[in-house]
Structures are given as C-alpha cells and as structure tokens.
Design a protein that fits this description.
The complex is a heterotrimer. By secondary structure, chain A is of the alpha/beta class. Chain A is 34% helix and 13% strand. The chains are: A alpha/beta, B alpha/beta, C alpha+beta.
Chain lengths: 591, 713, 170
C-alpha cells in the first residue's frame, strides 16, 4: 500500500494515498470534480480544463486529472473564481456548438448538456462565429458530425489506444482543429472497423450510429410483409439500463414482448444462430485439427473484427473461420428454412436484427452474405435504437408482460447466451467440440480461464490427451497483439477467439449510453452484463449447442449435417483484402 | 597522457597557422556581413561584386564573411581591414557603393565618405572589450579616454571603438591605436593621458606604456563604435559579426572550445553544475527557470539514455536573436550543449530549429560537421572518455513548438501539442527519457561562464537576474537591430540611448516586450529595470527578447489585436480556454476596432483573459491574453474611445475615420476619380463632397489630394 | 509524349527516390520519430505533400495515415495542395504590420485574384503569409521564391507581378 499523506480539501483535512492524481484522490473522498476529456481507460489528455482546481501556492489552476497529489497540498474545489472559470470554459464549448438539443439524438443524454446545467450557465456572454462542417453520412454504421464535437479527443484515443485502428486523429489546429480521418476521406472509405466505440465514448452527438428507426417504423406498418426479428444475447443484458434498471438484469422476455408490441410477427433468438454457429465452427475446427485447413483457427462472429482483419491483417484470411456470424446464419435460415416452413416467398419477409453492435449494420450489407440474392438481414438496429423505438411508440417497458420466443428459431442453449461476452464463443465451442471429438460430454463446462475482463486470456484443454491451446482477445487493440504473437509463433495456439469490442458484444458500440452516474467502457458495468449472460446459461437445462433440439431438427429437416454442402452454401462465407490497407504502428508512443 | 587542454592547444595553434600561413589571409581583408538580415538587405549581391573583382584580378584582397553585428537598420555592412590603415566600416552598401569601395578605397585608399560608419577620421582608438574579461579596469580606461577626448576637443580627429576579444586576455586592458595598429597592453587609467598626448596628437608611440609589437592586426576585429555599443555587454553575441561562422578556425581563435577542454580536463560533472548554479544563469527562453537547477535535476535522474536539446524554435514576431546567434556563432551553442551533455550524463544532443531559417540551419549543420571532424563531437571527445553527438531536427511552422513538451512531441514525430506537466522533461522528456532543454541564448552563455568563472557572470545584473539579455529592437525606433545589454539596465536606456529614440522624433507611446506572450508598457514603465521579476510586475515578461517600440501613430487596440491574432492562429487547439477563448477575445477586439464595440466589452476581455491565463494547459495559452490585459490596463482610454466615441486617436482603425472635403478644395476631381464607390460628387472647379453613407473609408481620396483639402479624423 | 505522361513519369521517379530514402529509416529504432524530417523530404521532392507519397511513407515507416494527416495539417510549413510556380509570401511580422502589410495583402489579393493560402488561377503563384522574415528594416516586405522585395507600397505590386508573368511567357 502506498504511503499515506495529509491533504486539505476546502480546508478539511484528509489522509490519502500518495502516488495518485488529485482527481483520483478527490473521487475517493467524495468530491466529484466536473470533467470532460478525462476517461480512466484512456491516456490523460488534460485538454478540456473542466476539471481544474485551485492549489495553494500555484499561480494557475491545475487540471486535477493530470496533476499528482502531494503531501500537505491545500486544494480548493469551489472558490468563486474557480467556479467562474469552469463555467466560462464550458460556456466556450457551448458557444461553439450548434445548440440544437431538442432535435439532437443525444438530447437528454448528453454530457455537454449535463455539464452546462451543472456549471449553472444561465446566460451566454461570448457568442460568436461557430465552426461549420458537413456531416459525414457515408458509412452505413457510423455517422460523424464534427459540428457537435467538443474536441475532448476520447474518440481519437479509444480508436487508437483501445481499438488500435488509428482511423481518427486531430487534424489542423487552433480554432480549426477537427477530429477526422486521414485526408478527410469519408468514414466509408476509411479503415474504420465500424465498431462504434467512438459513439460510446463521445460526450455529445459528434458520433452516432446510422439510424434506421424511421424506415423500420414504416415497414412495420406494411401489411404485405412478414416481420421477423432476432436479437442478440447482449441486447437483453443491457437494454434495461436504458429504462432505468440497474446493469446486469436480463430483460429477455420483456424485449420479446416489446418487439411484439412494436408489430413484429415473429421474434427469434440470435442465440439460436449462435448455437448453429457453434455446430459449424466446432466441426470446422476439428476438421482443421485433422489437417484440413490452417491453424490456428480464428473466430469470425464479430463484424468489426472481420472488417478490421480484411484491412489490417489480410494475410491471415486463411486462419479465419469461414462461418458466418450468428446473426447472418439466423438471417439465412429465416429467408430459407423458415420461409419454406411458413410457405412464404422470402421476398415478403422483412428480416430485422437488434444488435448491441454498430458493425452489424455494415455486416448486413456485405454482398458475400446474400442468400439467393436476398439480404439475410434487411435492417439492423442497435440496442439504443430499439430502446428509443419502444419509448417513442409509448410502450411501457418497465411494466410489460413478459413473452416467449417464437418457434422454430427461438430455442437456444446456454452456450448461445454466453456468445455475447468475451470468451463465450470459445467456451461454447469447447463444450461442443470436446464432445464431438471425445464422444464424452465435457464435465467442467464453465471454463474460468477464459472468463473475465482481462484483455488477453489464454487457456488449454485436453482432447483425448492432445493439448489444445486457446487464446481469447477482446478489443481490436488486444486482437492486434494476439495476431502479432501468432505471426511470430504460428504454432502457439490452435484456436483463437476475437471480439472487436471491449468486453465482447456486451460492450458493443450500440449499447445504451452511460447515464449521468456512469461512464462508458466501465468494467463494472461490463462485468454485470456478462454476469447476466452467465446467469442465463446457468439457468438453462440445455447448456451445450449440440443438445439444442431445435438445432437438431434444423439439421434433420433442412441442412443435413454440419459442414454439408447446403450448410456451406448458407452458413459459410469468405473474406477478401480491402482498401485502404490499415497500418499497425511499429512502436508508436501513444499520445 | 595528453589532456584535453593540451589537445585543444595544439588544435588552436594549427588553426592560427592556417590563418597566418595560408594565402587566404592577405594584407587586405574585406568582411561582408552575411546573416539572413544582411542578405535580405542585399549582402549577397555586394559579396558577388567583391568576389568578382578578385576573380578578375582587379584587386588582391581577401574577401570573407562574418555574421550580423546587429545593426539591422543600416545593412548591408562591409568592413575593410588593412595593415597600417584605419579599420573602416561601411553601411548601407548597395552594389553601386561596393563598386565605389573597390575603385576608391581599395585601389586608391580614398574613403567613400557617404557610407562610412567609422574609420574615416585621422585616428581611431580601439579598446578590446572581449567578453571573457569584462573587466572593470577596461571600463575605467574607456571612461578616461572618453573624458580626455572631450576635454581636448579631439572629437573630429579621433573616434573610439570597441573590438571583440583578441585573445590577449592576460594582458588587458588593451588599447589599440589606428592607423598604426599599435597595441598597448596592461593599460592603466593614468596611461591614457600618455597615449592621447603622444600617440593621438603626435602620432608617436606612447612612451611609458606597454606596447605589443605589430603583426597582430589580423586578429583584431571591431565590434562597433562607442556611441552605440557603450551600453551593450556582449557575452552571447561575443562572436557575432566578428568571426566567419563557417570556419571553425576562427572560432578556435577566440578561445573556442576552451571551455569544453577545461571542463573535460579539470571538472567533474557535479562541479560543472555547481558552476552554472553559482552563475545565477536563468533560462533565456522566457520563463527564466534557473539553468543550474534544471541541469541538476536532469543529472540526478538515472536512465540508460538522456537527451540534451537546443530549442531554436524562435518564433515571436519581430524577434530574431536566436537566428542571429546561430548564423553568427554556431559553435558557441554546440560547445554549450556538449558541456551540458557532460554535466548531466547524456551522449545525444538535438538542435530543434525552425525550417524557416535556412541559413541558420545550414550554418549549424556545417558547424556540427566541422566539430565532428576536429573531434569536438563524436567518440572520446578531445581524448577523454566522454562521447557526444548532435543531430538536427527541423520544425515545420508551429509557434507552439517553442513550448518544451510540444517541442518534444514534434521531435517524436507528433503534432506539436503540449501536454500537462508534471512530469517535467527533466524527468520524463524525449521518448520518456530525462531531457535537458535550453534555448539558444542560454546555451551560448555556457562557454563564457566556464571560461570566465561564475563569479564574473554573477556580478552582472540585478539580484535575481544575472548576466546579459539579447533584445531584438524593432518598430518605430531609429536603430533597429540586435542589442545585448546587462540585466538591470533601464528600458529607457535601451530605447533612447541604444535605440536612438523614435523615428521622425514622434512621440513614444508604448514598449512591447516578450512578443505575443508579453505586454505593452507605457511611458511610466520605462524606468523599469530589465529583470525577470520587475518586468512581470509591470504586466509584461522578459520573454525571449522581442522589443517593439510603438509610437503615437499606432492604435493600442489594434496592436493588442495583432498579437492576439498571432496567438490565435498559432494556438494548437488542444485546450478549451486557448482554442475557444482567444477566438472570442479576438472577435471582441475586432468589433471594437471596427466601431462596433459594446459597453461591457472591456470587462468581457478581462474576464476571458484572466480565465485563459489561469486555466490554459501551456505557457502559450497562459500568456496569450497578456497583450490584451496589459493594454486594457495601461491604455484603457483608447479602448473607451473606440467603444464609446467610435474614435481611434492614432487614426489607424479605418472604420472609425471620417473623410471630409475642406473649403480649400479646388475641384480638380482627382479624388472623385480615385473613389472606388463613387461616394464623391462635385462639378469641376467646385468644392466636392463625400457622401458619408457610401464612403468605405479606404482613404484613396485623402492620399491622392495634392492640396491637403481632405480631412481625416 | 504528352505533358501529362512526362509529369506522371517524373512523379514515379520521385516516388522511387522517396522509397529509397525511406528504406534508410525503416530499420532504425524510433523510425516514426523522423516523420517531420520525412515530410520535409516529401515536400522537397513533390513540392507539396502528395497523397501517393504519403501512403508510401505510412506503409514503409509503419505510421497510420491518420497520424500523418494530423501532423501534416498541424504544421503550416507543409503544403497540402500543389503550389503555384512561384511562391509569394507576405511578411506579416510586427514591423511589416505596422508599416502597412495589410495594404500589400489587399493589393496582392486583387492582382492574384485569390485569398491568402490560395493559388492564382493560372497556377503561377501561391499566395501565402509568412511569419517574420527577419528583414524588418525593409518593412513591409514580400518574398517571391528566394527574392525579397522591401520598402513596398501597394502601387509597386502590379509591376512586380507583371515581371514574373512576362518572364514566364518567355
């Protein structure tokens, strides 16, 4: 434990640990200094100056996020001059902002709004020229609106430091500073992985997902369409937060009910798709293990990860599992198997997916994933968009009567549920692969080695005396680290799980915004969401994908067996290098 | 074993031999000032003319270059040195003048009177005022000579000049009499009378005074005249305008690399740091942090790698001290850095220099190459165990890179955006390694302190500010240029005595020091001493050395706006107060100068200014409001006039002017013709009229009227 | 050969020179720290920061493009657009400002029919502002390429521009 030192905050004496910043110390003492550019998961920027405090003996205010606390330090957090300075700093941000709150996507959930209120800005003194930029709406997933940007730089840092994509940078300087892509090219033409973490960390609406709610509302009223929807495991683990429930409570049946109330005819479970993925992926892995294909095999369910791989690591395409993601597999089954079942022309089916993810919007538009010329998924909306639709439609989510999934694509195993958290795909794949390979069910099905929020997790399992080494990475930055290891030591691992977002899908770029009392990327919240999924798994009687009766029926009635020709046609895909090529910096000091 | 001192001695002798024995030093030498400022004024063309004359065999003179001596207002300058003749300096040398110098002076020995600066009188007395002695005895002798000249009314016959160090430091004070080149050594105050009576009046060698035999003239180079240089003290600029900056031999001649050899032979790193601490030297980049303390902190850090950086990213508008120093004397900076490296235990130096200074870049590059070749840089310097190398990194046009953390980011290949401190670069700097950053002027002081001792340096200046400061004098002052003055000198002395007062004898209004980070001082502040603390106490800063004189024709609101425009344009954009706040301040200032100022604008400027000062991330932001805050304080009346009366007393803010045609208009129609918006009407030979609602206040009519019939108020 | 082809060929030659230059950095430690030095080289070769050249830099030195873009746009010395044949820099230093640099700017704007930072329509002139050129005694000054014009009045501008245009016609 660090040395204890004595400090004074607003003339009150405290003992705190040495070796931390003023902000860290004050947080623990119960003084929450207002802040904007600071994020505990990202490097210290010290740029916004909102978190300034007064320190005795210092000529100027100091940024509490960056300044180390020291013995006998006398700190004031609320003197009139300091309050006025903070107030003016936030007003300066507001003065250079469109101030169109009532027509803004982040209305009522905007850090700038909250700060402005908390600073007591009741009047504006410095109104003048405001920056003007075009919105970048080129991408099907991520929208960039630099006019709303307050230049806190959290997006730049999350994109480089956490995701290792380095698509965003500050460009130009001074009043003309803007966060943009290289050469100011549209997001759609950039190396953006569509992960949406920039949206998660943005305090305002400078980054947003491409919104499809309007289109969806219209289609839901089209009597000529059969409206089918699926939603991802992580949606149920987080949507409650958007309605004021604490994190970590699954709202599966409530979500089903809300979707029905919104007008969907069938509500299916992406977890069914996950089970199907496991059937194919586990078998594919065992084939590769036999020598038919390259090892290590790397999972392919994360859409951001797939786009990232094609741009940054195209030389690893052969290592990628050819399996489509659970969403796309289920979408493919909806437009074929299910269409046949209900004897409807697949063109008359509207296939919608609610995802925790923004990159799934990109995935849904991939031409490689067309099924007989039709999109497997027509519209992807995020957890956030669904929550908004529920509210907008006046549905009382809090008191809603729970409902059940529809058949035949609504039953899932526990393995399907944990797909939403880092390590879950691997765990579920092992549960199934083990049994297929050894003929015996795996006894210890909760594989703790690969659970938890550590960035890179290694584990191993014995298959009839053969040691299989696995590794799990979440967040694209960690993915890069693992891939660099594999480049150097191709034999090190047999099976690799990669999820593009921190925490896996539960931390996806489409999840509810952090509210007034929480922060984006908060590990505690991610862990609670993960726990919700593990809870679903524990409660299921069927915890292994291959034991899912609906899956068995699907193979029996339609696909034959895993890796069959038909399965290949409908459930597998291919990848190709994409331009512009991404660059992983060799040894860049991150700033 | 040969010590570094012995190795240096040998090298110096070789350099002397080269200078003496090689043909390149003939009995006649032409020195052309070749720094950026001189070149801008046309020195290159002048140089070509001299070189051409030599090539064609018209003259047999050796033509060489030297740096800038600081006399910007009269450049290009050319010095003619000849055995047995007066040492002559010409100013404002155009190609035509250069041709006349060849024809009349070189060929026939006739002075070109119109352009001569000194050396046209019958006699001249040159006193060695080299940096290394800075001897009170010399100052006493100077005073005595001046007194004698006055008393005996010899002003028309003899003039008094100063030379730079002639390397006879043990034999000073030195008095040299021209044209005979008689060198009197160990001159005492009572000797002056003897010299004046015998040598000046009667042109005989003064008896009873020590004299050195002739043959030494090649080393003697004149710095300048008594009038302009009396109040100056040249430590940093000791060799500027004296030596050929592209020839290391000439640096060796003026005790170059002696400090390094001394350090390597006799001193431990700790002793070097103690010496620098004792000297009282403070950083000359602006903030004034004690240099020795900075060195000590960096030296105490334990690391596999440390860096020494020379911050040459001089960027204040109107300031060019560092550029001149590098262009005139690059080796003194290199020598300083090597000593710094030795003191803190670093083997790697980096000179970060503006790309906008191509000549300075070229000269420092050349100097580094020469220093490497001579073994002052590289492995085992002067036979010691110490190794040190220097690399050059170019900036790319960002003022903020003068801030040390921004500079570090720039060297690392990043955007030059500052980061919060601590950690300070001394602890975590370049590539997160301990890094010692000093600016050009600071480094150039180091060899002097080592050679002349910390005590001598510490004697100069005020209680808290020691040594000298280089200023770039600019604006509405007669002698614009570079001056080096002892700390403690009054601002008034710089403006009136060294600067020669305001041009056209207009009224002084303000003195701006410290560039865009500094403030505007009023008449009443002119008695302030040059000292870090006193300048801060009156609302300006020492800064890096820009000093701009503003007269009654300038509008203080517009001056404040000019500086704020500069900082606003150079703001890196990282922190909110500087990025957004300076923009709003500029908007307010702009509307005031356009006659759209509102009640409360001054208060808004002050509110924003004080907030930005206290809340910004880096020094640039923290000081950006200074020009505004100092003018709202010292020149509040002008702001009030602009806002309330819509008047600009300097008649500078065009939007606040009214043009009217007076009774004495003869109706020539010239104004009508020139008016771009047809605001002027009137028949020929009738009094014309300006329609005020159409007039755009361009002033075209006013400029074109030959009869002073248009009023401008 | 068409002029366009000659230009293209020249560009490819420069790309080749650049590649060789970059190879010397490739295996150095902290290669990316030389980014400014490298960008200076690109500008020296191409006259501005050519996109294709920048992509080579990114690939060989392994620095993300967005990072280079951030750096390139931060420093005013780097040109992002192809410049004119001649570069006119108006000094906006203090001395020049006080002695009427703004009138010189206005006149140049009129003559070149472009704003500061632009290129004249005929592609002949880039019109830029400069920080103090260090020729304060000659204020106001304008630098065209390497040549300094001092003690200027707005009336002198058209003649100077005309002279360059004439030389170019020859």
């Amino acid at each position: 434990m660090a040395r204890l030192i004595t400090v004074y905050v607003n003339n009150k004496q405290y003992q705190v640990e040495d070796g931390q910043t003023i902000m860290q110390a004050l947080d623990k003492l119960g003084y929450h200094i207002p802040r904007l550019c600071y994020h505990p998961k990202l490097s210290i920027e010290g740029a916004c100056r909102v978190c300034i405090v007064e320190v005795d003996g210092m000529r100027n205010f100091v940024a509490s996020c960056a300044y180390p606390i020291s013995d006998a330090m006398k700190i004031s957090t609320n003197t009139p001059e300091l309050r006025r300075a903070r107030r003016d700093i936030v007003e300066l941000l507001v003065d250079n902002h469109p101030m169109d709150c009532h027509i803004c996507d982040r209305n009522d959930n905007c850090e700038l709004q909250r700060l402005s209120y908390a600073m007591g800005i009741k009047q504006r003194h410095f109104v003048g020229e405001r920056k003007r930029y075009q919105k970048d709406v080129s991408s099907v997933a991520v929208i960039r609106d630099p006019e709303k940007c307050v230049l806190c730089g959290r997006c730049v840092r999350v994109c480089s430091e956490i995701q290792g994509v380095f698509n965003l940078s500050y460009a130009y300087r001074g009043f003309k500073t803007v966060v943009t892509t290289a050469f100011d090219i549209p997001i759609a033409e950039s190396v953006c992985s569509s992960c949406g973490q920039c949206i998660n960390v943005c305090p305002t609406a400078a980054f947003l997902e491409k919104n499809y709610t309007q289109e969806l509302f219209e289609k839901l009223c089209d009597p000529g369409l059969i409206k089918v929807v699926q939603f991802a495991p992580s949606v149920r683990a987080a949507i409650g937060e958007a309605f004021g429930f604490p994190a970590g409570i699954s709202k599966e049946k409530e979500t089903i009910a809300a979707l029905k109330k919104l007008g969907f005819d069938y509500v299916f479970d992406t977890q069914f798709g996950a089970d199907l993925t496991i059937m194919e992926e586990a078998n594919e892995f065992l084939e590769r293990l036999k020598g038919n294909g390259k090892l290590p095999m790397i999972t392919s369910c994360s859409a951001a990860w797939m786009k990232f791989m094609e741009q940054f690591y195209p030389d690893m395409i052969e290592n990628i599992s050819t399996c489509k993601s659970p969403m796309s597999m289920l979408g493919a089954m909806i437009k074929t198997y299910f269409a046949e079942k209900i004897k409807v022309d697949p063109e008359k089916i509207l296939s919608v997916a609610v995802m925790c993810c923004t990159a799934k919007k990109y995935e849904a538009k991939r031409p490689e994933l067309l099924v007989n010329g039709l999109s497997a998924v027509d519209i992807v909306i995020t957890t956030r968009e669904l929550a908004w639709m529920i509210k907008s439609a006046g549905i009382d989510f809090v008191n809603i009567q729970p409902e059940e999934f529809d058949n035949p694509l609504g039953i899932s195993s526990g393995g399907g549920a944990i797909f939403g958290t880092t390590g879950g795909v691997m765990e579920s794949a092992i549960r199934t692969a083990y049994e297929i390979y050894t003929g015996e069910p795996l006894m210890e099905i909760e594989i703790s080695q690969i659970r938890g929020m550590q960035g890179i997790k290694e584990g191993s399992i014995e298959l009839d005396g053969k040691k299989i080494n696995v590794v799990v990475a979440h967040g694209l930055g960690n993915a890069s680290k693992v891939l660099e290891i594999i480049k150097k030591e191709p034999q090190k691992y047999h099976f690799v799980e990669i999820m593009g977002c921190p925490g896996g899908c539960i931390g996806g770029g489409g999840q509810p915004y952090a509210g007034a009392n929480s922060i984006p990327l908060d590990e505690n919240i991610l862990m609670k969401r993960a726990e919700a999924l593990y809870g679903i798994d524990r409660k299921k009687t069927i915890r292994r994908a291959h034991n899912n009766p609906a899956i068995r029926r699907l193979y029996k009635e339609f696909l034959g067996k895993p890796l069959s020709e038909k399965a290949h046609k409908l459930l597998h895909t291919h990848y190709s290098p994409k331009y512009p090529k991404g660059i992983i910096p060799k040894e860049m000091t991150l700033r | 074993m040969t010590t570094p001192i012995e190795i240096l001695k040998k090298k110096k002798q070789e350099a002397i031999d080269r200078i003496y024995n090689k043909t390149y030093f003939s009995d006649k030498v032409i020195y052309v000032g070749m720094a950026s400022c001189e070149i801008a004024a046309g020195a290159k063309e002048v140089m070509e003319i001299f070189k051409d004359a030599v090539k064609k065999g018209q003259i047999t003179t050796y033509v060489t270059q030297r740096g800038c001596v600081g006399m910007c207002s009269v450049e290009p300058t050319v010095d003619i040195v000849e055995k047995g003749k007066m040492h002559t300096r010409y100013i404002k040398v155009t190609p035509d003048v250069a041709k006349r110098i060849i024809e009349e002076h070189i060929k026939k020995g006739q002075i070109v009177k119109e352009n001569v600066y000194f050396g046209s009188k019958q006699k001249s007395i040159v006193i060695c005022r080299g940096a290394f002695c800075l001897n009170q005895k010399t100052e006493d002798v100077i005073e005595e000579i001046e007194k004698e000249i006055k008393q005996r009314n010899l002003q028309d016959k003899v003039e008094l000049c100063f030379s730079s160090c002639i390397d006879l430091c043990d034999e000073g004070p030195i008095v040299i009499v021209y044209p005979e080149n008689r060198i009197y050594t160990n001159v005492k105050v009572e000797d002056v009378k003897l010299i004046i009576e015998q040598d000046i009046i009667n042109s005989k060698q003064a008896e009873g005074v020590n004299v050195l035999q002739n043959g030494y003239f090649k080393f003697i180079k004149i710095l300048g005249d008594y009038k302009n240089f009396k109040r100056q003290k040249r430590i940093v600029l000791r060799n500027c305008g004296i030596i050929d900056p592209e020839n290391i031999d000439e640096y060796l001649l003026v005790r170059g690399y002696e400090a390094l050899a001394k350090v390597l032979t006799y001193m431990t790193p700790k002793q070097v740091i103690e010496e620098i601490k004792k000297s009282g030297l403070r950083g000359r980049g602006g903030a004034g942090f004690p240099t020795g303390v900075k060195w000590e902190i960096t030296s105490k850090e334990i690391s596999d790698e440390k860096f020494v950086i020379c911050n040459s990213d001089e960027g204040d508008p109107g300031a060019f001290m560092d550029r001149s120093t590098i262009e005139g004397d690059p080796h003194s900076i290199i020598e300083g850095m090597i000593i710094g490296g030795y003191a803190i235990g670093s083997s790697k130096g980096i000179v970060y220099i503006r790309a906008e200074y191509p000549l300075a870049v070229e000269r420092i590059k050349k100097a580094i190459e020469q220093a490497k070749k001579e073994g002052f840089l590289g492995e085992n310097i002067l036979g010691s165990n110490f190794s040190f190398d220097i690399e050059i990194r170019l900036g790319a046009g960002a003022f903020v890179c003068g801030e040390e953390t921004a500079l570090i980011h720039s060297i690392e290949g990043h955007r030059g955006m500052p980061r919060p401190r601590p950690p300070y670069p001394s602890i975590q700097g370049l590539f997160n390694k301990p890094t010692l950053i000093n600016n050009v002027e600071t480094w150039a002081n180091i060899p002097f302190i080592i050679i002349s001792s910390a005590e001598l340096f510490n004697k100069i200046g005020t209680k808290t500010s020691k040594g000298t400061k280089v200023f770039a004098l600019a604006g509405k002052i007669k002698n614009t240029g570079l001056v080096e003055v002892p700390m403690g000198i009054k601002l008034r002395e710089i403006v009136d005595e060294i600067g020669g007062g305001i041009i056209e004898d207009k009224k002084f209004k303000a003195l701006q020091t410290g560039g865009p980070s500094g403030g505007c001082l009023a008449e009443e502040h002119l008695d302030t001493e040059v000292d870090y603390e006193s300048l801060t106490s009156v609302g300006s800063i020492m800064g890096s050395g820009g000093m701009i004189v503003i007269d009654e024709d300038s509008c203080m609101v517009a001056v404040a706006k000019f500086f704020l425009e500069f900082t606003q344009n150079e703001s890196c954009g990282k922190c909110t107060p500087c990025r957004e706040g300076t923009k709003r301040m500029l908007e307010i200032l702009t509307r005031i100068t356009e006659g759209k100022g509102q009640e409360g604008d001054i208060e808004k400027l002050e509110r924003l200014g004080n907030m930005i000062k206290k809340s910004s991330l880096c020094g640039l932001g923290q000081s950006a409001p200074n020009p505004v805050l100092s003018t709202t304080k010292n020149f509040k009346d002008e702001y009030v006039e602009h806002i309330r009366d819509k008047k600009c007393r300097a008649k500078f803010c065009t939007n606040l002017l009214t043009y009217e045609i007076k009774e004495n208009c003869i109706g020539c129609g010239a104004c009508k013709k020139v008016c771009p918006v047809e605001a002027i009407s009137g028949s020929p030979k009738q009094i014309h009229k300006i329609k005020q609602d159409i007039c755009i206040k361009c002033g075209g009519c006013w400029r074109v009227c030959k009869f002073d019939a248009i009023s401008r108020n | 050969m068409q002029i366009k082809d000659i230009v293209q060929e020249k560009k490819q030659q420069n790309i080749q020179i650049l590649k060789e230059y970059l190879e010397s950095f490739k295996n150095r430690s902290r290669a990316e720290s030389n980014l400014l030095t490298i960008l200076h080289k690109v500008q020296e070769l191409f006259g501005y920061l050519d996109k294709e050249a920048i992509e080579e830099v990114a690939t060989i030195i392994q620095v993300p493009l967005s990072h280079i873009w951030g750096v390139a746009t931060f420093y005013h010395y780097f040109k992002l657009k192809k410049p004119g044949k001649h570069i006119i820099s108006v000094c906006l230093g203090t001395a020049c400002y006080i002695k009427g640099a703004d009138e010189i700017v206005a006149k140049l704007k009129e003559e070149l029919k472009t704003d500061l930072g632009g290129v004249s329509e005929d592609g002949l002139f880039s019109f830029e502002e400069a920080r103090c050129l260090g020729a304060c005694s000659l204020a106001p000054v304008v630098m065209i390429d390497d040549k300094i014009y001092g003690n200027l009045t707005p009336q002198m501008i058209p003649q100077i521009i005309k002279e360059y245009k004439r030389k170019h016609k020859e």
